[in-house]
Specification:
There is one protein chain. This protein is α/β, with parallel strands linked by helices and 418 residues long. The chain has 3 domains: 1-60; 62-131, Translation Initiation Factor IF3; 137-416, Metallo-dependent phosphatases (Purple Acid Phosphatase, chain A, domain 2). The protein has 10 helices and 15 strands. Helix 1 (4-21) crosses helix 2, helix 1 (4-21) crosses helix 3 (44-61) and helix 7 crosses helix 8 (283-295). 34% of the residues are buried.
Length: 418
């Protein structure tokens, strides 16, 4: 015959089981069901009290909290209901999986001594993020085409080939001067593009390859970060900022002579969602390249991740630099994406700083310059905001021009813009 302690543990498990299976029944009815279906040595009154106590415990220790923007939620529970898996937690908290994704989940259990028996307690926490709302890119494209007009790119006599590299325009940002960070807005973007177009034309190239390395806009949603909206131009988000970016790029391209190709890669700010997982490919850059293709005869190429370009016997690999592909072994990158027999250059932005890598190899205590590839992070047009200033970094605005030095190697000219 089982001892009293074992009976206590069994009745506790039965009460949890029946409470879970009959959530909509009264405590009186649940107690009756236990007596009808189980062999227990307890009165109806005692069972009814145990059921009520269990339901009070479940209700007291389970809660849900939301942040200010309702884009995240946290479900927590502490009690003796057996929740031992994520699926059980989703069922227990009644989580709508069409609305929420599980960001992370923890579940702990332990035994504790009750008044008359040993109880197993559970502590559960489920962190949720709201699923991004899908963006109707087809509708946006149709709307944009109604708002933009075609244009003609100028031609002029010239000599030689130049590769013009521009990154991080952050159109739509409106920043007040603070510390070492100057003020920034749409007028600054336009002014700087005007200057670099004129400086490129002064070089007198016969062919110009333009590389645009992402972060064309500051924010499509206005909420890339919780406080992003505080540093935006009025209505500088959504379709408005895409149209504005197109008009600015159109004016810029109309000023540069003898454009041969335009290469466009997406940046992390070019997403149409609040967070990267909603639009990791940066659809705004895709929209801009689509409009440029539709409204000009230029050779426009776009990629969300990486593009390659062979210009004047130098091979270029283009990316924004926010993916890990540009953060590892450069030899591996150039082996997989570069071109053997040519000098290879990896161009990227994102870091808002000028820096590059030159690779050397130790052989018999001599440094041999492996000068067949190089990584270059180009300067941004965007100079920073409160976030970058508070983090202790910012940059002067600039752009990069690259030429073949006549021996198959690049001459790299880095310019600072006012």
């Amino acid at each position: 015959m089982p001892c009293y302690k074992t009976e206590q543990m069994d009745i506790h498990a039965l009460v949890i089981k029946y409470c879970k299976e009959h959530k909509n029944e009264t405590a009186t009815r649940v107690a009756s069901l236990i007596l009808e279906n189980e062999e227990v040595n307890y009165s109806h009154r005692h069972l009814r009290r145990l059921v009520s106590k269990q339901r009070e415990a479940d209700k007291a220790f389970g809660k849900t909290t939301f942040d200010a923007t309702s884009d995240t939620a946290v479900h927590t529970y502490k009690g003796n209901s057996s929740i031992t898996s994520l699926s059980k937690a989703i069922e227990f908290f009644k989580i709508d999986t069409e609305v929420w994704d599980v960001d992370r989940y923890t579940c702990n259990s332990w035994d504790t001594q009750g008044k008359s028996d040993v109880l197993t307690m559970y502590q559960v926490k489920v962190h949720l993020v709201r699923k991004p709302e899908p963006v109707d890119l087809k509708a946006i494209k149709l709307h944009l085409l109604e708002k933009v007009e075609p244009y003609v790119v100028p031609q002029a006599k010239g000599k030689g080939t130049g590769v013009l590299v521009v990154s991080d325009l952050h159109i739509g940002a409106k920043v007040e001067a603070i510390g070492n960070t100057p003020s920034f807005g749409i007028k600054d973007v336009i002014r700087r593009l005007n200057v670099l177009a004129a400086m490129t034309n002064e070089k007198g190239y016969d062919k110009v390859h333009i590389c645009l390395l992402g972060d064309f806009i500051e924010s499509f949603t206005g909420l890339n970060h919780p406080s992003t909206w505080k540093e935006l131009e009025p209505e500088g988000y959504g379709v408005n900022v895409v149209i504005g970016a197109y008009e600015i790029l159109k004016k810029f391209l109309m000023q540069v002579n003898n454009i041969k190709t335009v290469s466009i890669v997406s940046g992390n700010h070019d997403r149409t969602s609040m967070k990267m997982q909603g639009d990791p490919k940066g659809s705004v850059a895709e929209l801009l390249s689509y409009m440029l293709k539709e409204n000009t005869s230029l050779d426009i190429n776009h990629s969300s991740l990486l593009l390659t370009l062979e210009a004047d016997s130098i091979f270029y690999v283009l990316t924004h630099n926010h993916y890990n592909i540009s953060k590892g072994d450069m030899g591996k990158v150039f082996w997989e994406y570069g071109k053997q027999g040519l000098y290879n250059v990896l161009l990227g932005g994102h870091w808002h700083a000028r820096k590059g890598k030159r690779i050397y190899k130790q052989v018999e205590e001599k440094q041999l310059d492996q000068a067949n590839y190089r990584q270059i992070a180009v300067a941004p047009l965007f100079t920073g905001n409160f976030y970058s200033e508070s983090s202790g970094w910012n940059s002067t605005a600039g752009f990069t021009l690259i030429e073949n030095n006549g021996y198959g190697k690049p001459n790299v000219f880095e310019y600072i813009l006012p």
